[in-house]
Amino acid sequence: MEKKTEQWSTRLGFILSSAGAAVGLGAIWKFPYMTGMNGGGAFFFIFILFTILIGLPLVIAEFVVGRGAQKEAVSAYQKLAPKRSIFSFIGHWGVVGAFILMSFYSVVGGWVLIYSLMSISGMVITNGADYGALFDTITGNPLLTIAGLAVFVFINSFVISNGVQNGIEKYSKVLMPLLFIFFLIIVVRSLTFEGAMEGVRFFLQPDFSQLNGENILYALGQAFFSLAVGISVMVTYSSYLAKNVSLTTSAASVSIMNIFVSLLAGLAIFPIVFAFGLEPAEGPGLLFVVLPEAFSQMPFGQLFLSLFLFLFLFAILTSSFSMLEIITSSLNEKTKGSRKQIAWIAGLAVFLFGIPAALSSNVLADFHIFGKTAFDASDFLVSNIMLPVGCLFIALFVGFKMNRSLVEQEFQAGHPLGNGMFQLWYQLLRWIAPITIVIVFLYSLGVFPF
Description:
It is a multi-pass membrane protein. InterPro entries: Na/ntran_symport, SNS_sf, YocR/YhdH-like. Belongs to the sodium:neurotransmitter symporter (SNF) (TC 2.A.22) family. It holds the Pfam family SNF. It comes from Oceanobacillus locisalsi. By secondary structure, this protein is mostly helical. The chain has a single domain (13-444), classed as Amino acid/polyamine transporter I. It has 18 helices and no strands. It has helices spanning 11-22, 25-37, 41-69, 73-80, 90-120, 131-139, 142-161, 164-190, 196-204, 213-227, 233-238, 247-275, 286-295, 301-334, 339-358, 374-401, 404-412, 419-444. Helix 7 packs across helix 14. The longest helix is centred in the last third of the chain and has 34 residues, at 301-334. It is globular. The protein starts with 10 loop residues before the first helix and ends in a 6-residue tail after the last helix.
């Protein structure tokens, strides 16, 4: 007997939860430092292009698979794909990708938890503080980083153990609106600094001479990372969706929200960075090193820093919920255990696997995999290999192997857009998305001389 499939209680709950899955570390932590390190406005322009032309069609494709099968990721592809074909393993690829992604994602989540708690007690912004040294002290403390990892994973396990409506949807309806409100406050304050417009120009004025193959690959990976496509998170979320809800408008809403939050992140960070003469290419420590320095030089800086950190924490949590959900739902479908038990077991596994990444800045700093720390290797593997490869196979599956009548039926359900729009999306998915992914890969490897 099949286990009863849960459902979202409202379309808004689904959109906010899906947006929460997309808007997290990708938009707020990773996007600003990747933009700062890879050409500023040119990177942002390419990122938007990839999000609209490649990312959005892939979000719709994952929605089509999930609701078309009414199954979580692993079972969905096994149900819809030819048996024993390579496409039947896309769901497994996604679950493994989500597991690795959450393992290092939760490490950063732990850092934010620590900083958030410290900011409440006024321990972050202090007179004469060296914020680089503070970041190194926190990440260099193995017990502290593991404790942060443990608490972050515990929160996720608690929410996911309560299911879709009472867990993910309930918390996303609160956290996502707060995210936008907090962000707008920070952006308004950021733009009032003298010299802020230099940061705006860096962020919004493209200089394509700064781009190379590696930058473009990172922009493609960033688009996939920030939309949470390629690891079938959206397959699992859409499997809980009623048949009368439009997948296309829902996917467009998620993509637009993601671009908007990325825009807000840039407008919140780069004006402050340039106003105070700081370094935009700080890297993963941008939020933790540069922003406390900037906030310390403004009135009510401690308050604004606390707001930003809690905003960041909310965004990370809504995103990490989706990763643990795809793992939990897949195991829940295949085992006899209860959702609560499986959520806690999955959380424990993520915690244990995340320990090497948590120790990458301290006791395992000299341990390298292909020249990268455990943390960086996990990030690179997921962002630049697993997500693009997953997206490539999803595009090929929905575009060439999945039953076309079912694909069109799911695309048109809820809000028919006409055959012309279906054909446009279908051709983008079948040809533009796969060809672009392959070309960017080859370009990044130096195959093309231009």
